[in-house]
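Hi all, posting the design record for the shared folder.

TITLE: backbone redesign
STEP: 1 of 1
STRUCTURE INPUT:
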C-alpha cells in the first residue's frame, strides 16, 4: 500500500496528510463500493464550501482523488437527479489491474527497444 501511495502522491514530507487521506479514501470506497461526492468528502473530514448555490468540497479533496483516478483505482460518474447532477465515486480494482499490466508491458517493450 505504501508503494502505491508513494507512486500517487510522491515522497515529500508535505504530502503526508494527503497520503493518509488517500489511504482512507481507498478503504472507504473498497468497503462501500461507491459514495457520493459530498458523502466521501465528509467521511474524509474535508470541509465543503458554497459556490453559486452549490455545495462543493475544497481543493484538498481533488488533490486526494485525482491521483487515484489517474491510475484508475477509483472512477467517477455524474448522474442527473432532477435538475442537479451528483458525482458518484466508486472503487474499480479490475480497471486498476488492467492499467498496471499495460503499464508494465509498455515499460518492458520500451526498455527492450533501447537495447
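Okay, here is what came back for every position:
SEQUENCE:
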Amino acid at each position: 500500500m505504501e508503494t502505491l501511495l508513494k507512486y500517487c502522491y510522491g515522497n515529500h514530507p508535505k504530502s503526508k496528510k494527503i497520503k493518509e487521506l488517500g489511504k482512507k479514501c481507498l478503504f472507504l470506497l473498497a468497503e462501500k463500493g461507491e459514495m457520493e461526492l459530498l458523502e466521501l468528502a465528509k467521511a474524509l473530514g474535508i470541509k465543503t464550501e458554497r459556490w453559486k448555490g452549490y455545495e462543493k468540497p475544497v481543493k484538498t479533496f481533488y488533490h486526494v482523488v485525482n491521483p487515484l483516478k489517474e491510475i484508475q483505482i477509483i472512477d467517477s460518474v455524474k448522474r442527473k437527479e432532477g435538475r442537479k447532477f451528483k458525482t458518484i465515486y466508486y472503487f474499480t480494482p479490475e480497471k486498476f489491474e488492467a492499467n498496471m499490466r499495460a503499464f508494465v508491458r509498455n515499460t518492458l517493450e520500451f526498455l527492450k527497444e533501447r537495447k
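COMMENT: The mean pLDDT is 90.
Let me know if anyone wants the other runs.
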